[in-house]
User: What shape does this take?
Amino acid sequence: MRRSIMVCAVLAGLAAAAAAPAQVNPPQNVILLKNLDRGETYSGNWGYTAPNGTELAISGTVSGTSFINATDPANAYEVAFIAGPNSTWREMATLGTYCYIVTEATGAALQVVDLSNPLQPVLVATLNPPAFFYATAHEIKADPQTGFLYVCGTNPGSGQPDRGLVILDTSGSPTSPTLRGSWTTNYVHDISILDGTAYAASIYDGIVYVLDVRNAGTPPILAQWTYPGASTHNTWPSADGNYLVTTDEVTGFTLKMWNIANLPAVAQTDDFASPTGAIVHNAYLRGNLCYVAWYKDGLRVLDVSDPYDIRPVGWYDTHIQNGSGYAGAWGCYSFAQDPTIAYISDMQSGTFILRYSNQLGTLAGTVRDAQTLAPIAGALVEVAETSDTRLTNAQGFYSFPLLPGAYTVDCSVFGYASGSAGASVATGVTTTLDFDLAPLAAGALTGVVRDANQSPLAAASVVIEGTPLATATDASGIYNFPTIPAGSYDATASKFGFAAQTLPVTITAAQQATRDFALLPAFFASDMEASPGAWTVSGNATAGQWVRVDPVGTFTGGAPVQPEDDHTPAPGVLCWVTGNGLPGGAIGDADVDNGSTVLTTQTFDLTALADPVLDYWRWFSNDANGSADDPWVVEVSGTGGTSWTAIENTLVAQASWRHVTVRLGDVLTLPIAQFRVRFTARDISPGSIVEAAVDDFQIYDDGATTGLAGDPDPAAGAGRPALHGNFPNPFNPQTAIRFELAQEAPVRIRIFDAAGRTVRVLAADRRFGPGAQSVIWDGRNDGAAAVASGVYYYRVEAPGFSAARSMVLAK
Assistant: This one.
């Protein structure tokens, strides 16, 4: 009686689950055909196409494996459930007429299910040590060309050695595979195979290995590579073997695509990040599409027909939440006979059978220099009707997925006259629209950067604000910009130990302008080579307290965790770091542990400074082991430390030297008589890796002048439009975008992501008065959803003026 009740409950649950669960994001070009849920937590999935055309969707759960008849996907139903040992991880592969299942729980090293009658799957073997070759495993893949199984992340059983990646041969007996080879150089988390070549993801070492497995045995390494912060989770090659996609199961990381046509040479072509902050999990290529199980995002479909311009073309959100975390879509299978079908196993909501139904066409083209026909990288291409934008890649190429219709397309890039043209797009068709942009009339700018005593300053930075133009002075303090489009600009000269200076300059076509700078010394500057003063170290961390040393770098998968070098150019070597281990040590040898470490400056009297600016370089890493839950906090005080205001508070790791500049009048009340700064690195969760560093700290007066900046610019009038840096930057959750206008004018303000796509329109021809203006961005897109951490760009446009800057949202 009890058994009958249980069976009825399961069937009722399956029937009730046919409707889609609640979604956060609406579907895009993907429709739900069926959702089946046993009410358990789900894990990996796969599929099977029988010789008679029957299609099976196969999903792992905590207690076993569900086999679903998906031949008629809208009316799919479960035909069998094969029980197994309880495990959060369950993965499967199909080979011939068999399904092979692995888990990380003991008791079923390999389950073999006979699918010769696909509507009646039968468990025909359960293999375990000591007779079998391992006890548990994380993942399994199959190669139909050789009949080999590749079992990843294995643990040995009684009487068996640790073989790591185990290669099994099913050609002799599909129900009792023999050992064909193994590979133990590094832990392999997942693997993909094409034409005798295996692409192994070594997640803990952050390395992609390419192995020759044609003869199995001990496969030799054909190539290997890593990349910053690598934690490679899965791989999948294109059918021609020229490209590979990889994923990193880490917050904030991207799906990456690589050109592998000329191994061992490897080059990344492009990447794609979820705008919601979801973690990418498993990706598979089929033709020009990449189907991805993207945890809380559900299924994402990407167009990779141009490997240098990955484009999102489909989305079905299977989870009820946005953001980071290990929940939602785990597995993705996209190899059914019907190329539009995909199966998703959602950890909380069961099996989804989905159809990618593309109603879009493609608008694509190349942007070139009209005189030389050379491609122009970084050009902004915008579809006026949708406000969708793209930045051209290194080959000058752009592309948009668009609904059928007529569009107006605008193209602009610094230094060139803008272009505009119309185009019509049809479903499934690529419409080509190229732009040949004419270079603007240009002049040149030169000058000398000196100190207040008129001595030349070498290696000073000079930038033209609101443009990509930047250079450095030579040994005589001379800088040169040979080509600048005619117009009015602000030029800024800066060097550590001096107050930066910004001066107006007007460029006239076919003429050379001259602008000299004289930089006052900073109020306070320390490159940490000598003691900066009465700085103190406090906190309750049991390891990783702040020390001023020559840092010893630590690395994981070739990517840095603690810096190997300070920020100061040679001969500088010292900086503040959170602990310092021995050369060759592990990443956790001297990091911050079990609490916080606080570095606090001495007290500064800044009452003589009209516009004090704090300027420093910092390093912060907290995700080297896949966890990013420990904060970096920087605070300032105008009361000697009785009260504090945060200028940085972030969980976002940036394991490289980053420049931070804060205008103190924006956060504290002037004048400031008792100014202090404190830097805090904190380890909240046991086992996390936290490293931080501080160098090249200075305070200067941005309101001071020397009167030695050379002749005034006669063409530069007062009240010229300008775009200033946003504040705060980095920020969370909001920041002020600051600009100036010479007179009342309509202004357009837009936010773009790192791929050049429009995220938010803050102002659309909104009128602002003359003088200083400020608009707040709250870190949300036009749909009111919070955007993910990362680099964003803001552009302010008014009649006769357009400028853009970058900013960092750091959650």
About this structure: Residues 1-19, 705-718 have pLDDT under 50 and may be disordered. Residues 361-437 form a domain with the Immunoglobulin-like fold (CATH 2.60.40.1120). The first strand starts at residue 30 and ends at 36.
